[in-house]
From TrEMBL:
InterPro entries: Homeodomain-like_sf, HTH-type_TetR-like_transc_reg, HTH_TetR, MT1864/Rv1816-like_C, Tet_transcr_reg_TetR-rel_C_sf. This is TetR/AcrR family transcriptional regulator. Keywords: DNA-binding, Transcription, Transcription regulation. It comes from the Bacteria. Pfam families: TetR_C_33, TetR_N. One of its GO terms (molecular function) is transcription cis-regulatory region binding. Residues 32-51 bind DNA. SUPFAM superfamilies: Homeodomain-like, Tetracyclin repressor-like, C-terminal domain. Gene3D superfamilies: Tetracycline Repressor, domain 2. Residues 9-69 form the HTH tetR-type domain. The lineage of its organism: Bacteria, Bacillati, Actinomycetota, Actinomycetes, Micrococcales.
Length: 194
């Protein structure tokens, strides 16, 4: 097999883009550095300059996922001025991301057998810090107490993860998922569900 010249400006980004596509279409078990290299038109050894092995590639994908989800939630929350709407928009952003990127989300939250790299831990912390910031804004809005923020952060994540799982599995239609988000936000805010 002859090696083809590489013409992409940023090989690492191109490899991650292709790996994310492969993850979405084929699943994590079928993801291979050699196949990704073939798909982007580089030698099978070229990815090794960025990812020492398949695990490093998977860790980089998970890191990228955590940062993208945090960014989506932040954008959702920042798109509204009234706190209840901001909280709901952040929750919707979580569910939208999770449903659209189910395989990536599974990878992000998969148990790691050995110590994950610091960059992956930092990316996961970015997500939870973002959720915490969204909940912290509720303290400033007079909705929550400071002492509740840590628990509310985990509860928000778990709740939106659960809604995402039901919608992604087809157990709940997207409109039903929207209603579940509305109900969850009402409960967070101490309001009756309608």
């Amino acid at each position: 097999m002859s090696e083809r010249p590489f013409h992409h400006g940023n090989l690492r980004t191109v490899l991650l883009d292709q790996a994310e596509l492969a993850l979405r279409t084929k699943g994590v078990e079928e993801l291979s550095l050699r196949e990704i290299a073939r798909e982007v038109g580089v030698s099978h050894g070229a990815p090794r300059s960025h990812f020492i092995d398949r695990k490093a590639l998977l860790d980089a994908l998970a890191e990228r996922g955590f940062l993208a989800l945090a960014s989506a939630m932040r954008a959702g929350a920042d798109s509204r001025t009234e706190y209840a709407e901001s909280l709901r928009a952040a929750g919707q952003a979580y569910v939208d991301f999770a449903v659209a990127n189910a395989a990536l989300l599974d990878l992000m939250f998969a148990a790691k057998m050995d110590q994950p790299p610091a960059s992956l831990l930092s990316a996961a912390e970015t997500l939870f810090s973002t959720i915490s910031d969204v909940m912290q804004a509720g303290v400033e809005a007079g909705v929550f107490r400071e002492a509740e923020i840590e628990r509310l952060t985990l509860l928000m994540s778990a709740t939106m993860q659960g809604v995402s799982t039901f919608v992604g599995a087809g157990r709940v239609l997207p409109a039903g998922g929207d209603q579940l988000i509305d109900d969850a936000i009402a409960l967070f805010l101490g309001r009756p569900i309608e």
